[in-house]
Each structure stands twice: as structure tokens, then as C-alpha cells.
Design brief:
By secondary structure, this protein is mostly helical. It folds into 2 domains: 1-58, no CATH class; 60-210, no CATH class. The chain is built from 8 helices and no strands. The longest helix has 31 residues, at 180-210. The protein is globular. The model has no long low-confidence stretch (mean pLDDT 82).
């Protein structure tokens, strides 16, 4: 829990509104006012879990693989909560399922919270549950989750309204089109590819050792 709060808050401060919190440093601790980053929270949980597993001599990958389906359920419920609260909506759209959200400017917008609930929650749960039953190499379910989340979030960011943050005001989109969320998701995808490579290389090395 501490990893989620610290990572999520620090991720939001560093990536989404740094200049504001430099001017108002005490508000960094005002978590009750909102402002959490999934990417930062995920990193915080991973670091905290690695430390915990190392301290108690537990297998991190075994623990992480087993937890991923539960994490997917939590993500789905979290996005449903975003939808109910009328927050984190999408860009304007003419599609028939577009919605007008309370507190917005009255434009019909993508219900991106529902897109994320479906992909990050339902699809991720089904895929991770199947992989958990099928895959024998520890860590592959964990890295599959990291990679798939990165892909899903990267795609959804194209129709999700970016947070009104200092970064976009000063610098615009990364490379002219990429949001902060997409940039961080791209890092997740690259990390997942690296993770797959390391696990397969280790597995191959173990097989060669037994020959």
C-alpha cells in the first residue's frame, strides 16, 4: 500500500505537474486533493514487492504472476470508479456511444474510462488467467501484464483527453504526438520485451546446463 501511494504521488508530481509542486512543495503531501499516477504507483508497488521478497526470501516472479489476475480486477474496478465519478474522460467524438460528462465543457466525448475498464480489466484478467494456467516459466505472466498494459494505454491515449498539465503547456507533445502517458507506456513495452528476453535466456541457459 505504501508503495502505491508513494509511487503514485511521486509519479504524478514528477511527470505531470512538476513546476507547480516546486512552487508549492508542501502540497506534494496533500494526496487527499487528488493527483496520482498509475505508472508511478505500479513502479512503487514493484520496488516494494522486490524488497519484501528479498527480505523474506520469496520468489518475486511467482508472487507477481499469481497476483496479476487480481490486479487486473482492481484496475477494471478503478476505471469503473473513474467513469462513475465523471473523470478522466476522452476527447470529443461523433461516435454514437459518446457521452457528455458532468463538469466538462458539454461536448460529446469518448468514454475512455470504459475502454480502459474493458481492456485493462476484463481482457487483462482473461489473458492473465489463461497464461497463468498455460505458461510454466515464472515471470512471463508478470511481463505479459506490463507489456499489454503498455500497449492498451498507449492506444487509448490517442482518444483520451490529456491532463491539463504544465508539461504540455511548455513543451507540447513528445515528438509532436506522444503524451506523457504514451511515453511512459512505451517504456513499459520496452521493459516487457527486455523481461521476456531475460527469462527466455535464463531458461535456455538452464536447459543447456542440464544437457
Amino acid at each position: 500500500m505504501l508503495g502505491v501511494i508513494l509511487g503514485g504521488r511521486l509519479g504524478y508530481v514528477l511527470f505531470y505537474n512538476l513546476s507547480y509542486y516546486i512552487s508549492h512543495p508542501l502540497l506534494i503531501f496533500a494526496v487527499w486533493e487528488g493527483g496520482m499516477s498509475f505508472h508511478g504507483g505500479a513502479l512503487g508497488v514493484i520496488i516494494a514487492s522486490i524488497i519484501y521478497c528479498h527480505k523474506h526470501k520469496l520468489n518475486f516472479y511467482a508472487l507477481a504472476d499469481a497476483a496479476i489476475p487480481i490486479v487486473a480486477i482492481g484496475l477494471g474496478l478503478g476505471r469503473l470508479g473513474n467513469f462513475i465519478n465523471g473523470e478522466l474522460w476522452g476527447k470529443p467524438t461523433n461516435l454514437p456511444w459518446g457521452m457528455i460528462f458532468p463538469g466538462s465543457d458539454g461536448q460529446v466525448r469518448h468514454p475512455t474510462q470504459l475502454y480502459e475498464m474493458f481492456l485493462e480489466g476484463i481482457v487483462m484478467f482473461v489473458v492473465s488467467y489463461i497464461l497463468l494456467k498455460k505458461l510454466k516459466k515464472e515471470g512471463l505472466v508478470f511481463w505479459s501484464f506490463i507489456g499489454l498494459y503498455g500497449v492498451f494505454r498507449f492506444l487509448i491515449e490517442f482518444v483520451r483527453e490529456p491532463d491539463d498539465i504544465d508539461f504540455y503547456t511548455r513543451f507540447g507533445y513528445i515528438l509532436g504526438f506522444m503524451s506523457i502517458g504514451q511515453f511512459l507506456s512505451l517504456i513499459m513495452i520496452i521493459a516487457a520485451i527486455w523481461g521476456f528476453y531475460k527469462i527466455n535466456a535464463r531458461h535456455q541457459k538452464t536447459q543447456n546446463h542440464h544437457l
